[in-house]
Description:
The protein is 7% helix and 41% strand.
Amino acid sequence: MSLQRKLFPHGYKYITGFTTASCDTIPGVTSVELSDAALNVTKITSGITHNIVSQKGKTAWEAIYPEGSYNPSALPRGGFGFYLGGSEDFQSAIQAGASHVIFSYSIMFQDGFQWNKGGKLPGGFGGIGDLAYACSGGRQTDRAQCFDFRLMWRTNGTGELYAYVPLTDDNANILSIVPPLSILNTDYGWSVGRGAWTFPSGEWVTVAERIKLSDPYEANGEVEVWFNGESVINVQGLELRNDTSSIVQGMHFQTFFGGSTVDWASPVNQTAWFADVSGAAVV
């Protein structure tokens, strides 16, 4: 399967979008450079870097996880974290009410990556204004005003969707039965579809995530995840907002080992890379 179809799954019309990938043109999608300015990066976590490097044929952001690093507020700090709004045209589309989006990127963990218990990976986020930010880390307040769909790796590279969504019975019932394994954590995000795919080390793979917002107070929202072009999680019937001012805002582009306790820490100094950063509003 071609890279562009892994980043922009077949079957959708793309109204407007952006990509840092070098691939064939997709109607509605424009090429942008991998830079903070071009991708409207904000709220960068201090004390860590996301340097641009060349790695196995791709221009990528580099995430460094020092031995002993876990939780972005603990020392030593590892990975990186920021919010990514995408291109100006894409931002204009979602501010104007586009409620159906796809985000994607390629990722490579260094050869022989030691996974330990797991870590966070980028995904889409949104909500009402500034309440959309920090919809993570065990947040319990204003949960109906935000949503966050980061991904995670777990032991041995097992993948999952790590969801912060409004705490409704409909959401709990639907997400709790997503195969192969889903765990609803009352204090942190919900682990959804754990084991639906497995990350390798030493090679580039591509993940894509589709978010369709619900109508206010209706359970008709959707989230879908593709791994290397194959749909591995597809959930429908979610309640993601109770107000039309709750919108998709971009990607929560964050990665670190953890967990919030030292037993999650990276066992050695190691690295991962992120490339082909893309997003689009779809119909």
